[in-house]
Amino acid sequence: MIEILNLQKSYGKNLILKDISLSLERGRIISILGPNGSGKTTLIKSILGLVVPQIGDIRFDGESILGKWEYRKKIAYLPQIARFPENLKIKELLNLIKDIREQNADDNYLIQFFGLEKEMNKALRNLSGGTRQKVNMLIAFMFDSPVIILDEPTVGLDPVAITRLKELLEREKDKDKLILFTTHIMSLVEEISDEIIFLLEGEIYFKGSVEELNQLNGSGNLEKAITNLMEKRNV
Ligand SMILES: Nc1ncnc2c1ncn2[C@@H]1O[C@H](COP(=O)(O)OP(=O)(O)OP(=O)(O)O)[C@@H](O)[C@H]1O
Ligand SMILES: [Mg+2]
């Protein structure tokens, strides 16, 4: 569904993504892991056309995305840092986004699902960190998009909200969607990922299942295996 071909991205003299090639298919939950600054957000933003690579191509359903924007309607995106006008109430923000997207949205169900009914008339600047993240998630999930990309959706969420997120991801996967997400919570990765892509210094250092990573590493514990990858580079 999404193909990344020999992608290279630099900021000034810093080469951030070095010759990345990947094929991402529907019906899968894919975790992009890697230490801070390894290029996860840059890779995600490249798929969204928010970052323009110097070399390489990205294809969405077989067509290059470079210079195009229509394909973006098929992608739901939760950015690592979401910025919306702080004076808007949640209710107003949702209406604004629905107007812009001109697509059907199933927000009532999600408002209940995340227990946001009582927060709808609060201005964004008055929300707690976790509530803000729930709003971001609501925006990402309210349109029926075939691709869902979440850049650190777990930040600030309490355990109940993380369980809810997990349920949502599994439900969307069952609808044959492609889900791509980053997180630093390894238990979530272990529970739901069909595939892990581990980035290190802008390269794909490991790609495979949780089981394959554990086996390769010999630790039987994903948190340890990932820490080993980050520290020792022994895969
Ligand atoms: N707009 C920019 N201009 C210059 N450098 C940038 C820019 N955006 C990102 N970088 C650099 O690119 C590198 C990769 O950043 P990126 O945000 O992709 O990392 P990440 O893997 O998402 O990290 P984190 O886990 O902290 O979110 C970092 O060294 C960062 O400083
Ligand atoms: Mg990031």
UniProtKB/TrEMBL annotation:
Q: Which Pfam family, any one, appears in the UniProt record?
A: ABC_tran
Question: Which Gene Ontology MF annotations are present?
Answer: ATP binding; ATP hydrolysis activity
Residues of the signal peptide: none
Record has Nucleotide-binding as a keyword: yes
* UniProt keyword annotations, A-Z: ATP-binding, Nucleotide-binding, Transport
Residue ranges occupied by any ABC transporter domain in the UniProt entry: 2-226
Matching entries from PROSITE patterns are given as: ABC_TRANSPORTER_2
Q: What is this protein called?
A: ABC transporter ATP-binding protein
